[in-house]
Amino acid sequence: MKRAGFTTIWLPVALLLPQLMIIAIFFYWPAGWAVQSSFYLQDPFGFGSTFVGLENYTDLGSNSEYLRIAWFTVIYTCLVTFFSLAIALLLAVKADKVIRSARTYRTLLMWVYAIAPPVAGFMGIMFFDQRTGPITDAFQVFGWDYKLGVNYTDTATAMVIAAVWKQIPVNFIFFLSGLQSIPRSVNEAAIIDNRSSTSRFWQVTFPLLAPTTFFLLIINITYALFDTFGIIDTLLKGEPGNNPMTLVYKVYLDGFRGNDLGGSSAQSVILMVLVLILTVFQFRLIERRIHYT
Amino acid sequence: MTEISQPLEKATTPKARRKPIKWSVVGDHTVLILGAILMVLPVFMVFATSSHDKIEIARNGMQFGFGDQLAVNYGKAMFEKGGFTDTVDGSLMLMNSLILGFGFAIGKIIISMMAAYAIVYFRLRFATLAFWVIFTTLLLPLEVRILPSYEAIQRLGMANTYSGLIIPLIASATGTFFFRQFFRSVPEELVEAARIDGAGPVKFFIDILVPLSRTMIAAIFIIMFVFGWNQYLWPTMITTEESMFTLVRGIKQITQGVIDSNDIPEFGQALALSIIAIIPPVLIVLFFQNWFVKGLTESDK
Amino acid sequence: MAVVKLNAVGKTYPNGFEAVKPSSFTIADGEFVVLVGPSGCGKSTLLRMVAGLEEITAGTLNIGDREVNDVDPADRDIAMVFQNYALYPHMTVRKNIGYGLKNRGTTADTIEAKVQEAAKMLNLTELLDRKPSQLSGGQRQRVAMGRAVVRDPSLFLFDEPLSNLDAKLRNQMRIEIKALQRRLGVTSIYVTHDQVEAMTMADRIIVLNSGEIEQIGTPAEIYHSPASTFVASFMGAPPMNLIEARVEEGEIRVNGGASIGPAGRCPSGPIQLGVRPEDVELGGAGQTPFDISIVEELGAHRLLHGHLGGQPFTVHVGKEVAAAPGTTQIHLKPEALRLFDSQTGKAM
Fold first, then answer.
1. Which chains touch C (3 or more CB pairs under 8 A)?
2. I need a surface site. Which of A253, A291, B104, B179 has the fewest CB within 10 A?
3. Model's pTM, two decimal places?
């Protein structure tokens, strides 16, 4: 709040009201409802529900399919996060170095940001499809009999590649801006202190980029967990079958296709807790980020 | 101290130094060019292939060059009625996408600017409480509460309406957070000077704060427009009537078409529709690149 | 320790802008040379070329007996102190100071010993385990100095190192840096836009303007015999008075008035006459009218601002000389008069 804030009462209330109402109706009510229904078992024919306590949660713990999906989600998140960060960092470091056509490179590397995940997923289908996909053809050359949507690992590969491709621009933009905010003179001092550009990068540039990297780590984990839904749904062509999927997709599947409201709600709550932990983590890192400057 | 060689006499004619080729620079450019190809080529191939006949695509796969079916495919994508009810075409979906993109971005900016103004500039007893009530929503993305949100929309009878599509998406605090950060960085003296000049809260907001926030508003508009345009999960759930489909939502229908038909699927038309879905947000990001990058990187600090 | 020799060193950017015109000078072993000039005059570019941070596009640069044009900055045996100190924010003071040594393969024991020695010299011993963000401006400045000193380089480079400090601290650091350099005897190049720093610290000053060397000389030479009107007005506060005058029959006259002094061998015609404010005497033998409009009281002395022959003119008098607005007669010391070409501004 500003020192010389206005003292009117009705105006700020009127200003806040729309936001608070929307949040109450579309955030707090649904969230509370999810928590509540995670303790109930829905009658399959829609005749009421019974309180079952933590049963929905314990069921998940012993459900081998759910555990397999959770495990896949972990691996998928790690792969997507690692590769999209690594490739974007490499590109940002190079883009920060070159003087000639730096702007053109920046434009070419960031515009994919605007492409919707399902479009990326559809592109994935076209490129990995057995009939039309040039990437599938390339895999065949190396003796990999690639079958999208049939083989578990093959489908997972396409998911990871499409998700990484879509996420590189955001990471690139943040890394580049992080690199550009390192004072030029600090880099120059390092040039005088250290001959090797590789060791300069790891000893000076990379540590100074740490706040950006931590921040992006959270962003990317959130992305892989939630925002890749569109990519996955499109790549699976709405037919999950025996294919890999992430936890969010499972929530959707159980809730909408399977009509298992309690189970789906319990899964939602688990994800909520997960995001909560990530966010707390992120806030603590933001504090650290300020510390540097 | 001693032996001052005079600067004004040119000691020797400066020898022209030939620059040696710097291999590290060549390496940098190689990496960047490969990266650019990685990002651009797939979309280019989608575009090139969208100008081919479906039979040719089915036979030869994705193309590097252009064919002669460009106008045909895009005409079909835009104006051939499809779907179960034969009522939806590309132009209708484009319209819906624009409504979602603009409606979401504008709605979000108005609502979050108002809320941020109230939180930052007023002495309000429950300001801190309001802050926390609003900012808790940052914690839970829509994806984890889709089911209950869907339920809420159903009960309110807002399924298959534009407001049902747009308003729940606004129920997160990202915009409010950005504006709060920005307002706090506005110099304290400004509001003091305005009060001395006799400006009330409404005048101060309209005459001073809004003009000051122009760049910020532009940046957030771009980010929010792209975000809204690219929404998928929520439109998928909330719009069951085909006349409400957005382009991004329509992609799913297309892919199902590509897979399910026993006939040769309409590859060209589907690719054309993808390109149409890509163009508006890409153009906005490209044209307003600087604002967009600034908004994205600064608002998150 | 080394002799630094620039032979027609110049810098032209790819867009054709010539930031530094081919310049030559030699810096003696242990000498403290200050590059001074207004912003954009190319002084920093010149320094950065010596450091190797900027490519040399013309001429040759020697440090010691090596030509270093294509030598990596890390291999030039130099140390540099930056304007904003350029400390590594993630390293402690100890690591900041020792980083350059570590990369040169010095053993940990030697590094620690040298860091301790440098810290002692700069009063940093208690701060060794702090991060730069926990230090004040003056302390950061000292760490930056320590980073340079510890390396025991053959050349120190300073890029406006004091401009981020407040006035008091700046005066103090000025003396400290100079004393340190004297003690270590390391050849130094110091860039500044502050003429007071240049005058007080330099063994020799190089004045730059628009990428070109205007004058090289000791502070006294620069002050008393400026090579051009640019140097005359840039160095000294208040600057040298410069007024339009004419030489007629060997006498200098302003606005057709009485003779101000002899013009020596200068041919007749228009000239620019330069005289330092303190080389003027009030009253006495004076026969040049001076209209005083403002008296600036500075305690130890007074500055009298007014007009001479209709042109702005300033006179510096001691506190014992009383003065009040109005017209008075002044006398310009003949030996202190400097004549400049009215076209080129060069000294005659």
1. A, B
2. A291
3. 0.86
